Amino acid sequence: MRIHNPILAGLALLAGTAAVAAPAAPNDAYLAGYAAAVLEQRLGWQPGSYTLDVSEGRMRLDAREHDDAAAAQEALAAIGGVRKVRVASASEPAGSTPGRWFPTTELFRPSLADPKEPRFFVSSRHYDTSTDTLWLAEVGYGANFPVYGRIDEAGNGWNVGISGGLFGLFNLEADSFDLINADYTVGMPLTWRQGNTSGRLRLYHQSSHLGDEFLLNAAPERVNLSFEALEGLIAYDLTPFRIYGGGEVLLHREPADLDRLMAHAGIEYFSATATTLVPGLRGRPFAGLDLKSYAEHDWSIDRSLKVGMQFDAPHSDHFLRLSIDGYRGYSPHGQFYDDRISYLGLGVMFGI
């Protein structure tokens, strides 16, 4: 199995979707121009008396010089294609950025194709290993949950939170869909953003366990894989693209002879223009390539690819992603970290 197969299949999927889609929803540049016209012509605001930023249909308006910010927010929210409007009003002192519990702003967007990013998903895949070919499914439960942060009206700032994930691998060819491997992660991420640059510093723990049925039927040699790691990533937005890079260092690990270092990088495409499929439902194509390289594996590069379509709705932060998933490299499934594998499959992810 070659990793370029999902690329070609993904391009075909996107081309087919584009061929039948309805006209595209307004992009950010159009929305910014429309909003400026509303503020200046309808409300009589002077150019330069406000600051407006638009990203993926979300507007951030600094209106501290005006006392009719509520009317501006209502007018902007009524524009078709606008998902959310955040306003800094005259009642807020300039330069003040109060702390906030449980912020909802996403400062560092989770990697699209990282197989160990906490998320809710299910993916059915055909695996090629050194000893077998078989159908497996991975099911994931997890999320990043901001607890406290300081974020200004331009979307810049920081927050700290908790994250957790469960990644279960099941054998679809077994009578009872036996659990093969389960990886558990829990961590504390610190995320930040300044303009187009964002980052994440995360201290986290991972432990990996084999399923009972798999232990009984296959009698494998067990590896007690458990570690604490410090991860650092920096990303830069080049809309509609994003690049990121960084790495990890293992602080404590078992087995104790594991090499400590890992390098991590990736590139993503996420369409800035949503296409209206049916009234109230939009779609936008995406693609992500995630690369990891471990000292433990002599810096061999593990490649993870996702290509697909995200479906969402105006004024909603929830979404659903359908993707073609491809992978080649050392296994990302904890107990089998020393095995070389490849897979190709279909995935569904839920953004909640």
TrEMBL record:
Pfam annotation, one family: DUF1207
InterPro entries per the UniProt record, alphabetical: DUF1207 (IPR009599)
Protein keywords: Signal
Signal peptide region: 1-21
Name under which the protein is recorded: DUF1207 domain-containing protein
Native organism: Immundisolibacter cernigliae
